[in-house]
Design goal:
This protein is an alpha/beta fold and 449 residues long. The protein has 17 helices and 15 strands. Helix 4 runs parallel beside helix 11. It is globular, with a radius of gyration of 22 Å. The chain binds D-serine (DSN).
């Protein structure tokens, strides 16, 4: 079974009805068709995005959106939750089974709320936390001063090692993690990144946490699908708490979840509700359940391996095109590019805009030690999760790297950019993310970029 088969579910009739129902709202109907067109005719290379299955979309748009269900299965604050309880129980059970966890909370609306719940479960305001700095590859919720996390807790940051020859550096600096843990005595150590292209081994973090008596949280937002697919080591059973998002490599609906041992189950549940959230999004929880089931299929393992294989191919081709890769390559779904080697004057912001205009969607990103601000940046981040779902392989990755190089080599050449835009459209036409929908909505699709 191919990686596409696992997501080929027969909800097309249901979905076609759902789309037709939107025709009563011409503006949103038109925007939905335009966004489907954008997703179908441009390259989706944002590392945190993916294409869900049609079954996930169907569950996300289902009648469960109508239901208030504050509380947890069997302990709700509203009536009428008999079916919703079954849905949430099933989602929890599937999450537990997929990751081999004792306890799962599937209510967090996002990765940020999952992380906040984890902090709230084990920390008091002012407690010290050790986590990766945003400009080294960490996340806003890992203590950035502009995030509520940085305002509430005392975060101390670790980073990556200096760039070495032949891509030998720019790995998480475990010596620094150990040194800071010994001097700062954090109550919690956080592993997890948003812009880092290497495998994160949870075991050394566990050892350091044990040495200093800290709890250990692993934010698996990015690699969750790679962990479920067996191509990255699992932090479940190693970390005290594992948070993740369901919409990145895991290919589910937009949302978050928390896994933990039985010892922390009550604290995590109380932190999510009533600590941080009100009514859970049961339609999204239904969609999470669908995604967990899909990720447990054998074909998902092939998909996860394909994502990494494609990232390696994209990295190799970008390197050949003259781009320096942060850490020299990749072991996950991401490729982080340092643009300065390619063109010292080209910022991440300008490169992102140039690529966008050519139909290549990626995001600018700071690289370790970036002299430019987070808004401008010197880097680009690419991801292969969505392209792999659409069926692209290593040949397409080489082609994408060529297109990226051609666009960025001629920033002022509008006709070249239009030529590449046409090539991108041709490439995408062979890999439609929702083939049935494209036919279904052919009359509504726009012809713009
Ligand atoms: N915005 C996500 C990402 O792109 O990695 C993280 O929250």
């Amino acid at each position: 079974m191919s990686s596409r088969d696992v997501r080929a579910i027969s909800e097309r009739d249901l979905l076609s009805e759902a789309i037709d129902a939107l025709s009563g709202d011409p503006e949103i109907s038109e925007m939905t068709a335009a966004e489907l067109d954008r997703q179908s005719t441009t390259l989706q290379l944002i590392a945190s995005e993916n294409f869900t299955s049609e079954a996930v979309l169907a569950a996300s748009g289902s009648v469960f959106t109508n239901k208030y269900a504050e509380g947890y299965p069997g302990r709700r604050y509203y009536g009428g939750n008999r079916i919703v309880d079954q849905v949430e129980d099933l989602a929890r059970e599937r999450a537990r089974s997929l990751f081999g966890a004792d306890h799962a909370n599937v209510q967090p609306h996002a990765g940020a709320s999952a992380n906040l719940a984890a902090y709230m479960a084990v920390l008091e305001p002012g407690d010290t936390v050790l986590a990766m700095r945003l400009d080294q590859g960490g996340h806003l919720t890992h203590g950035s001063p502009v995030s509520i996390t940085g305002k509430t807790y005392r975060f101390v940051a670790y980073g990556v090692t200096a760039a070495g020859p032949d891509g030998s550096g720019e790995r998480i600096d475990m010596d620094q993690v150990a040194d800071l843990a010994r001097t700062e005595r954090p109550k919690l150590i956080v592993a997890g990144t948003t812009a880092y292209s290497r495998i994160i081994d949870p075991l050394p973090f566990r050892q350091i946490a044990d040495e200093v008596g800290a709890k250990f949280m692993f934010d698996a937002a990015h690699p969750a699908g790679l962990i479920a697919g067996g191509v990255h080591p699992s932090p479940v059973g190693v970390a005290d708490i594992v948070t993740f998002t369901t919409h990145k490599t895991l290919r589910g609906p937009r949302g978050g979840a928390v896994l933990c041992g039985a010892d922390l189950a009550k604290s995590i549940d109380s932190a999510v509700f009533p600590g941080l959230q009100g009514g859970p999004l049961e339609h999204v929880i239904a969609a999470k359940a669908v995604a967990f089931r899909e990720a447990a299929q054998p074909a998902f393992r092939e998909y996860a391996a394909g994502v990494v294989e494609n990232a390696k191919a994209l990295a190799a081709a970008l390197s050949s095109a003259g781009f320096r890769l942060v850490s020299g390559g990749t072991e996950n779904h991401q490729v982080l590019v340092d643009l300065r080697s390619f063109d010292a004057d080209l910022t991440g912001q300008a490169a992102q805009e140039l690529l966008d205009a050519a139909g290549i969607t990626c995001n600018r990103n700071q690289i370790p030690g970036d002299p430019r601000s987070p808004f401008v940046t010197s880097g680009l981040r690419f991801g292969t999760a969505a392209a792999t779902t659409a069926g692209m392989g290593t040949a397409e990755m080489a082609e994408i790297a060529r297109l990226v190089g051609e666009v960025l080599r001629r920033p002022g050449d509008d006709s070249k950019r239009d030529e590449i835009r046409a090539e991108v459209r041709d490439l995408c036409s062979a890999f439609p993310p929702y083939p049935g929908w494209s036919k279904l909505r052919g009359d509504h699709l726009t012809s713009g970029s």
